[in-house]
Design goal:
Layout: H1 2-13, H2 27-41, H3 55-86, E1 97-99, H4 106-123, E2 126-131, H5 140-147, E3 153-158, E4 166-170, H6 172-175, H7 180-190, H8 193-199, H9 201-217, H10 229-251, H11 261-267, H12 269-287, H13 291-310, H14 312-317, H15 323-326
Helix pairs in contact: 1-2, 8-9, 10-11, 10-12, 10-13, 12-13
């Protein structure tokens, strides 16, 4: 019975034989009959493959998948770092250095801690240092309470993100042995961006601490010990300028109450003497015991004075000739 119905439906759809012409078959009925016949014969075609998504859509999906994987992989590390950073830092008087910015080399941190402890036990001067980025870390109140700062304490604040990475706070008794200009010079020599770029943050900080503790141990310093290359070149240039002024004064002709040329040199002594003695020799003598920079400035002053005073060509080149000499 089922075969007769199938044959009848197929014949009505024109599916049995190409010579059989269907008489106005219904498309839905024909489709059902064809599906039934194919199911009986086991020749059901596979479903058509799904259309592939466009290239842009596939790239976007791959990028989203990669971003999600990276986020999931880094999430535990970031959370751990934030938890560690959020933990409060214990400020203790037994820990003179809090290196939150990791400026001090790890191998020298304990030695620096012991150096500051020895300075306190031997001299009574207390040096404490905090390295941090910006305002992160303990507040000023926490530092004062934890370190128990007093009038004999120097607090060093190091911020690598600042143009000048060093700042100092010190008590009144510290001012009696180390003046405010001393700390200004210390900050300018070791904390400016050029010194940090040349020496590195770690070396600049360690040299600064050694200089500060050395001055406190010896009972104070009027200026920062040591003569940098830039500072010496400045004193050398000023010494040359003083020699030029002295030589020019010796070229002036006597007139009026001045009957000798050396009198002009004496009258101009406040000018060339200030350049040569105060700015040429003073910084060298006060900052180093090395005789080589001192001798170099003296020689530069003498050569400049002799060249201008006794060489007409040099005097003319610098515009220091008189009318008589030019004639």
């Amino acid at each position: 019975m089922l075969q007769q119905l199938t044959s009848l439906g197929a014949r009505s759809c024109g599916c049995l034989h190409p010579s059989v012409t269907p008489v106005a078959p219904s498309r839905r009925r024909c489709s059902a009959v064809q599906a039934c016949r194919q199911a009986q014969e086991g020749t059901v075609p596979p479903p058509p493959a799904a259309a592939q998504p466009p290239l842009l859509q596939r790239l976007r999906s791959a990028a989203l998948a990669g971003a999600l994987s990276a986020t999931l992989a880094l999430a535990p590390i970031s959370a751990t770092s934030m938890d560690a950073w959020a933990q409060p830092v214990a400020v203790s008087n037994d820990t003179p250095v809090l290196d939150l910015a990791r400026v001090v080399p790890s191998g020298q941190l304990e030695g620096l801690q012991q150096q500051l402890r020895d300075l306190e036990s031997e001299t009574g001067w207390r040096v404490r240092m905090l390295t941090r980025y910006g305002s992160d870390g303990p507040s000023d109140a926490e530092l004062r309470a934890g370190w128990r700062t007093d009038e004999r304490t120097v607090v060093i604040l190091v911020d690598p993100s600042s143009p000048n990475i060093m700042n100092f706070k010190f008590g009144r008794e510290v001012r009696s042995v180390l003046s405010a200009p001393f700390f200004t010079e210390l900050q300018g020599r070791f904390g400016n961006m050029f010194a940090v770029r040349e020496m590195g943050e770690s070396a600049a900080v360690m040299n600064m601490v050694d200089t500060l503790t050395g001055c406190l141990a010896r009972g104070g310093c009027a200026v920062v010990p040591g003569l940098s290359a830039d500072h010496y070149y400045f004193t050398l240039a000023v010494s040359l300028a003083g020699g030029v002024v002295a030589g020019a004064a010796s070229k002036l002709e006597p007139s009026g109450f001045v009957q000798r040329r050396w009198v002009w040199v004496a009258l101009f002594a406040p000018l060339w003497g200030s350049l040569f003695v105060n700015f040429g020799l003073g910084p060298v003598i006060s900052r180093t015991d090395d005789l080589l920079p001192l001798v170099g400035n003296i020689v530069a002053f003498g050569v400049a004075a002799a060249a201008v005073g006794y060489s007409p060509k040099i005097s003319k080149a610098v515009g220091l000739t008189t009318d008589e000499d030019a004639a």
